[in-house]
Structures are given as structure tokens and as C-alpha cells.
Amino acid sequence: MRRPHAGRPLTLLAALIAAFALLAGCGGDDDSGGGSTPAGDENVTGTVSMTAVWSGDEQAKFQKVLDGFTERYPNVTVNYTSGGDQLPTILSTAVQGGNPPDLAAVAQPGLVKDFAARGAIKPIDFAEDAITQNYSQGWVDQGKVDGTLYGLYFKGANKSTVWFNPHVFNDAGVEPPANWDDFLKVAGTVKDSGVPAFSIAGADGWTLTDLFENIYLRSAGPEKYDQLANHEIPWTDPSVISALTMMKDVIGDPQNIAGGIDGALQTEFPTSVAQTFGETPKAAMVIEGDFVPTALPADANLVAGEDYDVFAFPSLGDSPDAIMGAGDQVVMFKDTPAARALVEYLATPEAAEIWVEQGGFSSPNKNVDDNAYQDDLTRETATALADAQTFRFDMSDLQPASFGATVGQGMWKDFQDFLRNPNPQATAQRLERDAVRAYK
Length: 440
Fold this sequence. Notes:
about 10% strand, disordered N terminus, 2 domains, about 45% helix, about 450 residues, D-Maltodextrin-Binding Protein, domain 2, 3-stranded antiparallel β-sheet, single chain, alpha/beta
């Protein structure tokens, strides 16, 4: 999940919807224009409306990607608007009102499935060859609903990473571990050196679900992961209890968590990063995604590889390499030649590299030039994401919102309760109870 933000006032939401409706009205023609794949730069004309969550600095960086598109397609105008955190509501309202944008980048696979089931979005099979050429099969499959390609993942996040303070590791005499047993041994040795091993953002339930999902993907395997994500097996399944037991090995020792359990439950994600990489470290590791560097203390002048570093989430037994992550997939509401041209352009490594070179971006496109990334750590996490043959989407994003991604209830709350009282059996029962309610 994205970091949760405070909800915007309803008046602002209404204004966003109104502005979005006006922008969508400036988009391309309706389905009647959706004929052929663009034959050439000068032959494609029209206007494309697009919306996504990206605002502020991210919007400015994406605009440069769009500038690259208009250089290639000079007779196409792209009107972009940011929906921010209200994007799902804005899109649903626009679809209901019959005036969606031509394209949107959506972070919630469940919402994409819902749009596909309602016939609100169009297949993008015209771009399947280009997408297959530039993306690993795992990413191609993530963009499909019931075997039909609807989504192109333009922006991704590798959430199978552990960020650590090299100075603390050096003082403890430990190296980054590759497997689970060594990971727990390193945690114990770091604790003995006088610094807690883990900084846990327990105030944000999504960080806890991320930890569980990484453990479960490796301990139960991708097939079980899919079954649990679709609630085809109950949360009381032995595989879940086993994963919760392994998770307890990380969060079950209050003395090995910065601030103890009570402190962790009051720690939000940015604080969990700051207390690991501050001037006086309060922990050695943050178990979170490739976006951790974006939360580093801005005035600390930290050097990648020297003051902060990363290793892949450790393997469990003979578990294959796997990535759990998230991403924004571009979907098409209106099939026009101009919209098709933009989809095909966004599938190219050249489009992704424009944002990559600006920083703060990981591309699932496997043909992006590795040298385009600004530093070795970003290059390492991004290429692992793009090359992943076993990739699974953040499980909480795949659930009904009331269970998977709502503050104070469902998975988020159940895992916060698990941090407070790590009882695998009781937690599995609570998760199953809440899942049943959400899936009714």
C-alpha cells in the first residue's frame, strides 16, 4: 500500500471530480474512433485525457515523459490531471457518470478487475507484443484479467527489500544475510551489540502486512499466495499460522525493536526510517520497500552504500527468488488512435528512462538501461523488480477495501493487534473472521 494520508475535505473532492469531468470531456473521441494501431507519428492526431495519482514532484517528472511522447507524436495533445489519493473515487464517479478519461494509471488491481467486469475499460491487446517484449511474464500476467490484457505497469515498487545501517552492522561485526536463519542470527547479534535490530512502523498497518506477505510468499509459495489472496483457502490454514509464527520471530522480542512494542505502535513509516539512519541510530534495519530512501532525513547528507544500504528479503529454505511489490498500471477507458499511441509509447524503455533519469522511480520494464538509474542501490532494487520471474502484488491491495486497505480495521488492524500480542492462532482466526465479512 501507499503511505496513508489524511483524507481531503469533501468540498475538495467535489472540486476534483468537477475538474476531472471537464478534463475528460476534452479527451479523444468515444469508441467510434478506436480502430487501428497508430501507423506513424504524423498520422496520429487528437487529444488524450489521462489521470493518475501522481502530483507535485512526481507530476512534474511524468510531464517530462509526456513531453517525450508529444515530440514523437506532434499532432497529439495530452491533458494530464492528478487525482491524488482520491483517484479511485474520482474514477468510479466518472465511470458511473459516463465520462471517464481516455487513460488512467491505477494502483489497485481490485479496482481494475471491477472496471473490466463492468466493461468500463478496454483490452490493450494491440500493445501485447510490445509489452511482452519489454516486460517479464510475471508483470505481463499482472496486467491481465481472466486472460485478457487490460493493464500496462508503468511504475513499480519492489517491497521485498531490507534497508540497513552499515555503521551499525560493522560495529556488530555482521554481514547482510541471504537466508532466514542467518537473518535471525544477525538480528540477535546486532541486539547483543547494544542496538535493537528492527525499526517497526506499527502505527502504519500496511508495513506489517508487507512483512507478512513477504514471509508468506516464500514459505507457502506463489500458488498458496494466490489462493489466500482470493480467499480460496481460509486464513486459518496451517500455512498462514506457520508464516505468522515466523513473523513472530521478528516482532516478538520487544527488546529488539526500537521503542519496544508500545513505541513501535506509535511509530509511522517516516519515523521508522529516521530512527534507523539518524545521527544516533535507534535500530539497524527497516523492512520495507525501495521507497525507503525517499524518507531519509533530508538534512543528514547520507551517502548511498556508506550510510544506508539494502539487501533482498531473505529466502526461506529452498524458496525461489520472488518479489512482492506494487505498481501503477495504465488502463484504457476510451479506445482511440491517440490513446493507443500513448499506451504503446509508455510500454517502451525510452519512456520509462525519462523518469528513471530524474530519480525516485522504479520501472518494471526489463529493457530499461541499468545505467539510467542514479545510484547503485536504486539500480539494484529496480532491476530485481523488472527481472522478477515470480512477482506477486501486495496482497492487501488485492482485497476488498474493508479488509485489505482501511485504517483501523481488517488486515491492518489485525496485524497491529498481532504486534501488540503475537498469537498466531488467535490472529489467524481474527483475519478469517474479517475476511469472511468482507467477501460476503
